[in-house]
Amino acid sequence: MKRAIFALTYLTSFVALLAAPALHAEEIASVNTNFRFTGSDRVTVEAYDDPAVSGVTCYVSRARTGGVKGTLGIAEDPSEASIACRQVAPIKIDAPLKQKSDVFSERMSFIFKTLHVVRIVDAKRNTLVYLTYSDRITTGSAKNSVTAVSMPAGTTIPVK
Q1: Among 34, 41, 82, 83, which residue is least crowded by beta carbons within 10 Å?
Q2: What is the pLDDT of residues 17-41, one digit of tens each?
C-alpha cells in the first residue's frame, strides 16, 4: 500500500512538472553545424526577458541536436551554453529580488537534463549577475557562462 501511494505521489509530481507553465525563449536565429538528412545539428540564439527585471533580456546560445531524435524532442542536447544579458529598455524592478534566484530553466533532454539561468544580486556593485549551467538528475556539468548588467545611475537593486 505504501509503495502504491509513493508511486502515485511520484507520478503526480512528475505529471505536474511536465504540465507546469514554463518560460519559453524566443528563438532569434540558428546556424547549422552538422548536416543530417533527418535534421541538422545547430546552434541557436534565444532571448529570455527577465520576468522580475523589466528592461533586461538575456541571450543564450546553445547547441541543439538534430536528427530523428532531435525532431521528436527526445535527443539530449550538449551541455555547452553561452549567455549575454543586456539592458534593452529602461530598467524597472517592481519587487525586492532574492540574492540568488533561478529565473529561467528549460529541458535539454526528455526528462533528465535542464539548462538553468540564475540571477545573482551583487549589491556592493549594484549589478545583476546571470549564470547559465546545466544539470542532470544524477550529475551536473561544470560548463558554465556568466554575464553582468550594471544598474544605471540612480537605480538601486532592492534585495529581500
Answers
A1: 34
A2: 333 334 567 889 877 777 666 666 7
